[in-house]
Structure prediction request, 1078 residues.
Amino acid sequence: MAMAEFVLITGRTAKQGAALSRGKDSSEYRQATGFVQMSREDRECLGVEEGRRVRLRTVFGEAELELREGDVPPGMLFVPLGPAANTLIAADTQGTGMPDSKGLVVEVELI
Amino acid sequence: MIVGNVVCPFCGCLCDDIVVTVEDNRITAVEKACTSGRSLFLNVHTQTAKPTVDGKEVEWAEAVDVAARILTDAANPLIYGLSSTASEAQRKAIALADLLGATIDSTSSVCHGPTTIGIQVEGEPTCTLGEIKHRADLLVFWGCNPAESHQRHFARYSVLAKGKLTPGGRRDRTMVVVDVRPTLSTRRADVFLQVRPGHDFELLNALRALLKGQDLDVDQVGGVEVARLQDLVERMKSCRFGVIFFGMGVTQTGGKHLNVAELVALVAELNAYTRFTAMPMRGHGNVAGADCTLTWQTGYPFAVNFARGYPQYNPGEFTAVDVLARGETDAALIIASDPVAHFPRRAAQRLAQIPTIVLDPEMSLTAQVARVVLPTAFYGVNAAGTAYRMDNVPLPLKKVVDSSQPTDEQVLDWIIEKVKTCSA
Amino acid sequence: MLGIINGEVYDPQNGINGEIRDIWIKDGKIVSADEVERAEAEIIDATGLVVMPGGVDIHSHIVGAKVNAGRKFRPEDHRDHVRTRTTLTRSGSGYTVPTTYMTGYMYAEMGYTTVMEAATAPLVARHTHEELEDTPILDKGVFITMGNNHFIMDCIRKGEREKARDYVAWLLGASKGYAIKIVNPGGVENWKWGRNVEEVDDEVIGFGVTPRQIVSTLAWINDELKLPHVPHIHAINLGQVGNARTTVEMMEALEGRRAHFCHLQFLSYGGKPGKRLRSGAAEVARAVNEHPNITVDVGQVIFGPATTMTSDGPLQYRLHQLTGDKWLNDDVEGETGGGVVPMQYKRKNPFNAVQWLIGLELFLLIDDPWRVYLTTDHPNAGPFFRYPQVIKLLMDRDYRAEVCEGLHPRAKKGALLPELDREYSLYEIAIITRAGTARALGLKNKGHLGVGADADVTIYAKLDDKEEMFARPHYVLKGGEVVVRDGQLVRELPGRTLYVAPPYDPGIERDLRAHFEECYTISFDNYPVAPEYLPHGEVVPCS
Ligand code: SF4
Ligand SMILES: [Zn+2]
Prediction:
């Protein structure tokens, strides 16, 4: 069931950076890149608890992630750079070489 | 043994004051580095790793042979990565691309490639980090979060650094952050402007208009009240030395290079009032070096193709994501980067479909789908070399522990020799 | 072993003016005839050809941070100017800012074998040396910018010129530089405050020193260290109408000490500040003639595209405002600054036309060819591969008159050039392109064909059209190896990097550690360029 539409932002975090050197097979790396942050307002409005697994879907792909509450404005989701984020972003670069990886429209679905 | 003044090769800060303790050829302690830097030094392995072909261990000669054959047989080979290797190896990689008539691209294309395009339109008023440390009383961080991505930036070069004209450090500076969400960096700021995603261009454009003294007949732009923009313009005009550091919040959002061009135009115009500079927050340790070496050997910093026997440049045409996603690449040599972990899925999948060769000290996700894996020494930990800081200041990477692995430079040399004999 | 026989030899250093001579080469050096086994030597028959030492460029911007920034932000410069890879050579691109390999090939194809990179900030010298290693064939050196250096200005203010001397010696060794470069002394530091200097006695903000003090101290240091070259000076007010006066004052500020003034054309502007540009060539040439301690290069304007790039930050900002074109600025902590702005020189632009006239007037009004050298301040006034056109202008009065015809009428009115009849001879061309420059640089083995010289030799067809003649030499030898044959590049060799390593009191390093802690963002230990960066490095002795 599609629940709501958000704007997706991907980016670096310190944990993800440190976990890189642990190897991308490491549990650190998977933990550091395998979650999505949502504002408290949105989380409460949707009635989802932290730690719940959710499915994100963009026109380019979908990924399953752990939901966390985070300091993001309502209407926005943040996903750390990593394999999950990559399935959601566009391969079309519109002549720049740079995929659209910030500001995509994303749907959230509870699993 | 204690080794001082070690350069951390992890991020574009290239902090060169790291102290590393080495016992029995193992790093046992790391001082001064941030969590990312520490983790890098402490996790570099020193055991011998053999190259593999199709998952089976082989001798170096054989692996190089297979790699050279894959590359010479390919019609449109791609060489990609470069941002976490030394400039010595980057120079060889470009020589190989020239020899093969290949496409060569660096991770710049998915971080600050749009910055380059913007600079090619509007220019680049910039400086080295020391100028900011010593002079800057106004720091604007736009679409970047150094508190997490470049953790010692504030302390060494910007917000907290004590310089000649800024002896009070933090007290002597105003810190402004523009971002779409609160971050660890926005929490440190004096002023936080929360821009609506995708509205950076509008905001920059509004600042330029206000700088020119034009009235805006709206109350807010991109989610920010005009009064707050007016306040920022006043701060910018009246500071002694200002800087805008900008990150992927500017280059990856809608507008991309246009955002950067607008940002540069604003900064250039501010120089009519005071001194103002701009600087991209380059991410990987030597991504700036990839721009430099590619430029001096080909004329262009990324997205270069040699198919016609001379370098051609065209982002969108010769950038890695595009040539992979369009299925044009029929063999790939990935050097010190992990596109499978970072590229959009369709581009990443292509790497599993074609013969891919990986040069990397780590068993990356790309290495896991590669035909040939060439495990090399880690520059800055077990090999010496050169890296360029985010402000293009070149620094010497040290060898602090021995490794029996060859360097990227050596392996590329072997491949070049092999390709020459293959094609002769 | 190799012999070049029956050539018409121009070797001004040895007083040879077009005599038919044989040149013998062994182990990369010129040797006397009796040292060679003729039967075993390769013979190049130079009958009817002109033989000269390899060209020596005293001032050109070919490598390093600024040049590379220029390449990076000017893709429009490269697209139509490419070089295809061959089995011998690398590919490349660029017109005013060509890539490193292409630069090496193009200089060699023009008969030049030694080129001096005109400015590098010591903080980024490592970058410069990496690029030099990728610049084949040529022997090279780097001038190190010091005219706005904090440590030096502090020493001057405190009256500690011996300390400044030791620092300069250390700095040249640490950056593997060849000479002291001074760019807009004090003005670049003031630009960091949004200002500049306008007079030789203006004050540098925060340091209480003046351009005069900076220049005279560095000239004294240069003599003390017995450096092979002299201080290489880009004076104040470059490009400003009316700067001829301060240029002459700067020459006088040296009080007889030796110095080189670069791209003098940009510094010989008459007229009143803010008014129309007039030629100041007569005034400045007179000063040069009267100061035997001074050598100069011209920086001749070439009509067409150029890229301005200097360490002169305020100048580059002014050019950006003037042209409205994209602007690159790069302030370097505690040392210098700089910028890059694209440029087009047009015959029909009165300002550009006067610039062109001034350059040629300087060439023709300075009496002693041993003290005036051919440059275009590549790529500031035009690209280096247009030198042959300048040679034609100097050797051919009619051609000069012809080009003059096409200039903007306002520029022609009252111009001096049409009255100057002087034509350079081949002997004089050999002086201003190799013998004189090698002498000024203190390169004892360059710029001549006497026994013991490096076997860098260029052989031209003797043509009436001097541009054609000098553009495509038949043969070029570098260190005794034939690199160009029948006008074709046939060999790629690495060139050497020449640098100095003057002695200094090691006690200075203690002060420097403290200075680095305070003033730099990199550590003292990571600053010097290690010898590994110069696999083809060679120390030129100071004496
Ligand atoms: S800030 Fe960057 S360079 Fe400095 S220690 Fe951390 S990861 Fe290394
Ligand atoms: Zn110059």
Q: What stands out?
A: The pocket of zinc ion (ligand 2) is lined by residues C 59, 61, 118, 262-263, 310, 377, 380 (CB under 6 Å).
